[in-house]
Design goal:
heterodimer, A: 252 residues, alpha/beta, four-stranded antiparallel beta sheet, B: 368 residues, abc type-2 transporter like fold, 2 domains, four-stranded mixed beta sheet, 4 strands, 68% helix
């Protein structure tokens, strides 16, 4: 066992994500330009921006699958440069693409993902039963996931990303292409997770969803141009909804 | 280790639930072996020929009977005039016409010489060649019988012996080639497709975000195919022994080791392909064009390398399949041990290490 570094001991630190001037360059192109922000434990943090603003690149650096060019970042108390392996154990991730295996059953999917996070067989069993119960998937638990409607898949995918009780869950446009009712149910799941102490880091295109977040950052051309609670942002820009905040910023 | 087992289990679910991959894995090897063993052959058997006999005397009859009696030819038609030859070839059934000259016996007796014209349909040059050789051989035997009582001074007799495959069975030549193709197909194509599939579906990203190390993901993806390739190799060898009575002269153990080496080199190629292709379609096209075609055309499987133009001969050297075919032919047909094929083995090891290193490097770059 390695001795923890001084800043790792401070586990009471409420800040589960600390980002300081994090930058990613692809050749001459700056995809993410010196972004700085913190996310607190149990917070629902909205990460907004137009297509190509650099949201996905930023997320990839935070979840440890892309190396930052410069800057500093700590996720769940671990440094993204030196300790990506430990970050991976403490986070959940759900990507833009629906990413469960269509040719595996609901139960097999849960078992597989539980397995790669090192859960014991007993724990996996408990988890799958609870999860299947909660999503009301009892009748289809042994059906192939490919046969489920897309809304169900999305919810299942979210719950699977939480299977190892991560400290933080990163959701990259989780509700793309989902109908309003499912979107609503999806956000109920997100609230529930946040209530249980999981920090939620979510990107979205839907501005009504931005209203559900505790705090929102808006990225434009690789930079964070605004960061506050939805209420304060609306006051600041003197508009009544997040949509107008976004339009004002994105149009410069 | 438990994570790894879970991963492997998942891979097998993928394989066994996809009818297409099941067919490629188990249908193809058997279909190919049977195709190459029974249908695709260089030997000639019961080739249809026609006879144009102007004299119809005892000598020509005897010769015709000899030809008809051989298992190589069956006489389809007797034609009466030269102008029919063209028409009969155009119909396509008859591959050769034997044209006995006028007054065949008379010439033979008076001038000690008579001619038979062998006209073959050379749209298929190999068959045409073989037919000509076989007919000449039958004629020569007949000639010897005629000259039984006469001794020729200064006689040179070529005594030929075909070693390692005395019956010249083409299946002996095809089995190592088919084995090479199948192992290449299963190992390289199937792995590259299965890895790119995860990329296409987005699950690769999820796997990379998990605590699994990239190398664990790759080994987990590749392992089932090593296992299945070995089973395929066993099926091919066993079926060629039992169905085609192919002898395996050398050590089965050595053959197994060399096959595993080749499987690993093909897997490394498969991983390499998956790092450069974004979709399953691309992976399949690259595997087929970049691997299968060279294996079939340039490895010496069907076309002998020694008769290729120099540039192609040089290219054939960088194809792992070429070396594997030399090795398997050596072990199966000649019964050689490692002391005769260590050079080929070393080349194969070198290539495997090279492809492995390259794909690991490429894979890392992709993650940046």
């Amino acid at each position: 066992m390695r001795l923890p570094l001084p800043w790792e001991i401070n586990m009471n630190n409420k800040k589960v994500i600390q980002v300081d001037r994090l930058t990613k360059m692809f050749g001459d192109f700056t995809a993410v330009s010196a972004i700085t922000f913190d996310v607190e434990k149990g917070e629902i943090f909205g990460f907004l921006g137009a297509n190509g603003a650099g949201k996905t690149t930023a997320i990839k650096m935070l979840i440890g699958i892309s190396n930052p060019t410069s800057g500093k970042a700590k996720v769940a108390g671990f440094d993204v440069f030196t300790n990506a392996e430990n970050i991976k154990k403490n986070i959940g991730y759900m990507s833009q693409k629906f990413a469960l295996y269509d040719d595996l059953t609901v139960r097999e999917n849960i078992t597989f993902f539980g397995g790669i996070y090192g859960l014991t067989r007993k724990r996996i069993k408990e988890k799958s039963n609870a999860l299947i119960e909660e999503l009301g998937l009892k009748d289809v638990a042994n059906k192939l996931v490919g046969a489920l409607p897309s809304g169900w898949k999305q919810k299942l995918s979210f719950m699977v990303s939480l299977i190892h009780d991560p400290k933080i869950v990163f959701l990259d446009e989780p509700t793309g292409g989902v109908d309003p009712i499912t979107r609503r149910q999806f956000w109920e799941l997100i609230y529930k997770a946040a209530h249980n102490g999981t920090t939620v880091f979510v990107t979205t295109h839907y501005m009504d969803e931005a209203e559900y977040c505790d705090r929102v950052s808006i990225m434009v051309n690789g930079k964070i141009e605004a960061l506050d609670t939805p209420k304060k942002l609306k006051e600041q820009f003197k508009v009544d909804n997040m949509n107008d905040v976004f339009l004002k910023l994105a149009r410069g | 280790m438990k994570r790894f087992i879970g991963f492997i289990k998942k891979e097998f679910y993928h394989i066994f639930r996809d009818r297409r991959s099941l067919f490629i894995l188990f249908g193809m090897p058997i279909a190919q072996i049977l195709l190459f063993g029974f249908a695709i052959t260089n030997e000639i058997n019961n080739v249809d020929i026609a006879i144009l006999d102007h004299t119809k005397d005892t000598t020509t009859k005897e010769i015709i009977n000899k030809i008809a009696a051989s298992e190589y030819f069956s006489i389809k038609q007797i034609i009466e005039k030269e102008s029919d030859i063209e028409a009969i070839f155009k119909k396509g059934k008859v591959k050769a016409v034997l044209n006995f000259e006028k007054d065949f016996s008379k010439h033979l007796i008076k001038e000690n010489k008579a001619t038979i014209q062998i006209i073959t349909d050379a749209t298929d040059p190999n068959t045409a060649n073989t037919i000509t050789n076989f007919v000449s051989a039958i004629l020569q035997t007949y000639q010897k019988e005629l000259n039984k009582n006469i001794t020729i001074t200064y006689q040179i007799v070529p005594a030929s012996r075909m070693v390692y495959n005395p019956e010249l069975k083409s299946v002996y030549m095809f089995v190592p080639g088919v084995m090479t193709i199948i192992l290449m197909l299963v190992s390289a194509m199937m792995t590259s497709i299965s890895i790119t599939r995860e990329k296409e579906l987005g699950t690769m990203e999820i796997l990379l975000v998990s605590p699994l190390k990239p190398i664990q993901v790759i080994v987990g993806k590749v392992f089932p195919y090593i296992f299945l390739s070995i089973i395929n190799a066993i099926v091919i060898v066993v079926s060629s022994i039992f169905i085609f009575k192919m002898p395996v002269q050398g050590s089965l153990f050595l053959l197994a080791i060399e096959s595993i080496l080749f499987i690993i080199s093909a897997l490394a190629l498969g991983i390499l392909i998956s790092t450069i292709s974004a979709t399953q379609q691309t992976a399949m096209m690259i595997s087929l064009m970049g691997l299968m075609l060279p294996v079939i055309l340039l490895s010496g499987f069907i076309f002998p390398i020694s008769s290729m133009p120099l540039p192609l001969q040089m290219i054939s050297n960088i194809i792992p399949a070429k070396w594997f075919i030399i090795i398997t032919k050596g072990i199966m047909l000649k019964g050689v041990g490692i002391q005769f094929i260590w050079k080929e083995t070393l080349i194969l090891i070198g290539m495997t290490v090279f492809f492995m290193a390259l794909s690991v490097k490429k894979y890392k770059i992709r993650l940046e």
